[in-house]
């Protein structure tokens, strides 16, 4: 009897804020006739990413209790095994890792775990790169380099934020780390999805050349200096205080703030306000109306170095509407 075909798995990686969720949303919104099961892993105890993913028919599984590359032997394997019991309800799996994840242990899962290997196969590692910040990141983050080294497909994204010279420098740097991956230069991750999904691009031999211990090594190191701070407020947040506070923080501490995200309830405002930041760059917009049953809780996550939870908490609380 012929072996059953395995389910293709795409691993989406890339440093904090590069554009992974932007790409995932495109995958989930486009009319491609395929059904994807999505696994999202996020750094930080309050899951905000799930709030930023478009409402889609696809089921989204969150893994928020740690970094995916450290928990693969547990959670990821369990989720994939659970999914396999419901075969036929989806055609492929997409995994969005945290920006801090080393992709090697995630990829390794598809080779070293026998049950997983029998049913799922790693299709490609797709790495989204932030053209504006990557050169700086490669100075201080081993993970950022690993993400590029392991990629089968690279989206060099946010090209609108750099000039031609800078873009050429980034291109050369990426090529020095990984000369083989297919490279697409994008804004908002706009790329034909067939360039990204179900490409059959993962090449174990190439990975073994980069990392001879790929199939046996299972320890890796993280930058312990990076922490996350989660904030929450049941009282509505006053935009006239909140916006200047956030601008002040990113101006003074932008070097250390690798990523920030928030979903905010403003007084007398029917819409949720979503704010996002990468270093000094801030982006904010109304997202959708609060649902009637949804508690209007404002939540923020900061990820970075030298973050002081108490100061951030005080600053955030000072923006809240005080009880009369
Ligand atoms: N200017 C510009 N902004 C972009 C582009 N692509 C994405 N963004 C913005 O960059 C921010 C981060 O994008 P996300 O897709 O959330 O990044 P991510 O990699 O999922 O972030 P994490 O999950 O926190 O690691 C958002 O505010 C996006 O709207 C781009 O090509 N140009």
TrEMBL record:
The answer, when asked if Nucleotide-binding is one of the entry's keywords, is yes
InterPro entries per record: CobW-likC_sf, CobW-like_C, CobW/HypB/UreG_nucleotide-bd, P-loop_NTPase, Zinc-reg_GTPase_activator
What Gene Ontology molecular function terms does this protein carry?
A: hydrolase activity; nucleotide binding
Taxonomically, the superkingdom here is: Bacteria
Specify the signal sequence span: none
Q: Name any one Pfam family assigned in the record.
A: CobW_C
What keywords is this UniProt entry annotated with? Chaperone, Hydrolase, Nucleotide-binding
Gene3D superfamilies in alphabetical order = CobW-like, C-terminal domain, P-loop containing nucleotide triphosphate hydrolases
Domain CobW C-terminal, which positions? 226-320
Q: Any transmembrane segments, and where?
A: none
Q: Which reaction does it catalyse?
A: GTP + H2O = GDP + phosphate + H(+)
Q: Does the keyword Electron transport apply?
A: no
Q: PANTHER family from the xrefs?
A: COBW C-TERMINAL DOMAIN-CONTAINING PROTEIN, COBW-RELATED
Describe the function of this protein: Zinc chaperone that directly transfers zinc cofactor to target proteins, thereby activating them. Zinc is transferred from the CXCC motif in the GTPase domain to the zinc binding site in target proteins in a process requiring GTP hydrolysis.
* Family statement drawn from the similarity comment of this UniProt entry: Belongs to the SIMIBI class G3E GTPase family. ZNG1 subfamily.
Q: What is this protein called?
A: Cobalamin biosynthesis protein CobW
């Amino acid at each position: 009897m012929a072996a059953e075909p395995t389910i293709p798995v795409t691993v989406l990686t890339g440093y904090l804020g590069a554009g992974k969720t932007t790409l995932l949303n495109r995958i989930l919104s486009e009319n491609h006739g395929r059904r994807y099961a999505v696994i999202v892993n996020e750094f930080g105890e309050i899951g905000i990413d799930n709030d930023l993913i478009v409402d889609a028919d696809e089921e989204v599984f969150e893994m928020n209790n740690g970094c995916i590359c450290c928990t693969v032997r547990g959670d990821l394997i369990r989720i994939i095994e659970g999914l396999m019991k419901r075969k036929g309800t989806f055609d492929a799996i997409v995994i969005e890792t945290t920006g801090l994840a080393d992709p090697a242990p995630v990829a390794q899962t598809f080779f070293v775990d026998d049950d997983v290997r029998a049913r799922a196969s790693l299709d490609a590692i797709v790495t989204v790169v932030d053209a504006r910040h990557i050169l700086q990141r490669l100075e201080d983050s081993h993970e950022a380099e690993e993400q590029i080294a392991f990629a089968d497909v690279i989206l060099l994204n946010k090209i609108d934020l750099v000039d031609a010279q800078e873009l050429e420098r980034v291109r050369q740097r990426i090529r020095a780390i990984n000369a083989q991956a297919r490279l697409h230069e994008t804004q908002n991750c706009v790329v034909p999805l067939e360039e990204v999904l179900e490409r059959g691009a993962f090449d174990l031999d190439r990975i073994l050349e980069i990392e001879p211990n790929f199939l046996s090594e299972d320890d890796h190191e993280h930058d312990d200096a990076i922490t996350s701070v989660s904030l929450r407020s049941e009282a509505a947040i006053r935009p006239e205080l909140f916006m200047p506070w956030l601008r002040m923080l990113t101006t003074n501490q932008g070097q250390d703030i690798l990523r920030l995200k928030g979903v905010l309830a403003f007084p007398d405002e029917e819409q949720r306000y979503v704010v996002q930041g990468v270093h000094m760059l801030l982006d904010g917009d109304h997202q959708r109306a609060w649902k009637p049953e949804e508690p209007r809780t404002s939540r923020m996550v900061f990820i970075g170095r030298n973050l002081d939870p108490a100061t951030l908490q005080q600053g955030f609380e000072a923006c809240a509407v005080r009880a009369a």
